[in-house]
TrEMBL record:
Residues 95-303 form the ABC transmembrane type-1 domain. Belongs to the binding-protein-dependent transport system permease family. OppBC subfamily. The complex is composed of two ATP-binding proteins (NikD and NikE), two transmembrane proteins (NikB and NikC) and a solute-binding protein (NikA). The chain crosses the membrane at residues 12-30, 101-122, 134-157, 177-196, 234-255, 285-306. It is found in: Cell membrane. Its main location: membrane. It is a multi-pass membrane protein. It comes from Halobacillus seohaensis. The keyword Transmembrane helix applies. Keywords: Cell membrane, Ion transport, Membrane, Nickel, Nickel transport, Transmembrane, Transmembrane helix, Transport. This is Nickel import system permease protein NikB.
């Protein structure tokens, strides 16, 4: 296990270096100039030159990249071009809202997806199986922005049961939970559909195994066969999908945050891209990449607890 963790840390470092280089170069190649955006339409050429010099944009691109990496190694992600705020401070300020939204969305996805998949496998080809499979297909196909808009129109505007958007209240309060419901459903629907499909496939494969038939032949109760013997072995691929989806949720809240006016990391990234705020874009991308690798490492560790036969030696 220690070897696995050490190996993943090395992979994380190499991955972050590669991602940081690609993002850094992409931002510099993309049309638009931060100096022009900061200076505004009335800025003269001398003003723009002074802004470039102040931001270090007049240096060769590779030298700018190495300066940036040197700062990252020391824990310095730089300063925002827009408001001169520390990038690390801006991310720390916004990240809790993104994390709360991702956790709530995954809770919705697991709460719906796992039971639906298991029941569909147990009642294969029944009306419930056909209905859940159809709903799962629709859930994967629906765009987040459309679903979020429809939920707002119905539950917030027409029925006025839930707030339109924002996560201003603490998540542990009643108001905070109400604010999380619509964005969590919007973001968690596609994940719930994928988890349901994987749960169904994994459960079907396990319940057809020889040891399940043996347990039934010995007179083990049906609920014990399903929820004790079969479920534990079927959870390995399901946990993989849950882990991957949680990693994607942490970095994929951009559209949902825009629809529900949530001041999270995704919205911070969108605003930074529009303003060509290089340090903020690079800092947010590095955060998302780091979280994705860490989540996958945690999934591998969970495997060993669920199935002792799995060894990383």
């Amino acid at each position: 296990m220690l070897g696995l963790i050490a190996n993943r840390i090395i992979q994380l470092i190499l991955l972050l270096i590669g991602i940081s280089f690609l993002v850094f170069m992409s931002m510099h190649i993309a049309p638009g100039n931060p100096a022009t955006i900061i200076g505004g339409p009335t800025a003269t050429e001398s003003d723009l030159q002074a802004i470039r010099e102040d931001l270090g944009l007049n240096q060769p691109v590779l030298l700018q990249y190495f300066d940036y990496i040197a700062g990252v190694v020391q824990g310095d992600l730089g300063f925002s071009f827009q408001n001169n705020q520390e990038v690390s401070h801006a991310i720390i300020e916004r990240f809790p809202q993104t994390l709360n939204l991702a956790i709530a969305s995954m809770f919705v996805a697991v709460l719906i997806g796992v039971p639906a998949g298991i029941i569909s496998a147990i009642k294969q080809n029944s009306w419930f199986d056909i209905s859940s499979t159809t709903v799962a297909l629709v859930g994967v196909s629906i765009p987040n922005f459309w679903l979020g808009t429809m939920l707002i129109l119905f539950f917030a505007v027409e029925l006025q049961w839930l707030p339109v958007g924002g996560l201003s209240a603490p998540f542990w309060t009643i108001e905070g939970i109400k604010q999380l419901i619509l964005p969590a459903i919007t973001l968690g629907t596609a994940s719930a559909a994928m988890i349901a499909r994987m749960s169904r496939s994994a459960m079907l494969e396990v319940i057809r195994a020889d040891y399940i038939r043996t347990a039934k032949a010995k007179g083990v109760k049906s609920w014990a066969v399903t929820w004790i013997h079969a479920l534990r072995n079927a959870m390995i691929p399901v946990i993989t999908v849950i882990g991957l989806n949680f990693g994607f949720l942490l970095g994929g809240t951009i559209i949902t945050e825009q629809v529900f006016a949530i001041n999270g990391v995704g919205r911070l990234m969108i605003d930074a891209i529009a303003a060509r705020d290089f340090p903020v874009v690079q800092g947010t991308v590095l955060l998302v990449a780091t979280l994705f690798v860490v989540v996958n490492l945690l999934v591998d560790i969970v495997y060993a607890f669920i199935d002792p036969r799995i060894s990383y030696d």
